[in-house]
Amino acid sequence: MSVRDELSQREEQVLDFIAEGLTHAQTARGLGISQHTVDTYVKRIRSKLGAGNKAELARLAMSRWPSGTSTPNQSPMLGAPQRAAG
User: Fold this and answer.
1) Using one digit for the tens of pLDDT, what is the confidence trace for 65-76?
2) Whole-number Cα distances in Å, 71 to 6, 25, 80, 81
3) pTM, 2 dp
4) Most exposed of 14, 32, 62, 72 (fewest Cβ within 10 Å)?
5) Do 45 and 14 form a contact (C-beta atoms < 8 A)?
6) Count of C-beta atoms within a 10 Å radius of residue 28
7) Quick one: which of 47, 45, 63 has its CA closest to 7?
């Protein structure tokens, strides 16, 4: 099992937003959660992936998809991840 397999569904969603270059505040609005909650998810993700800082985490997040493709939740109209149902 890889470290990425250990991420929760919500952590995956937060990582998708990071890969899109969105701020914690934008991520919070997009997921309908508080910025403090996003901060907590980011800390957990950094720990699980062994990312030392936000820049390293962003590089890891962006490396998850081949060049020139959208992240799984990207909206073609808005260019940003969409809130997951549920």
Assistant:
1) 655 445 555 443
2) 19, 19, 9, 8
3) 0.70
4) 32
5) yes
6) 20
7) 45
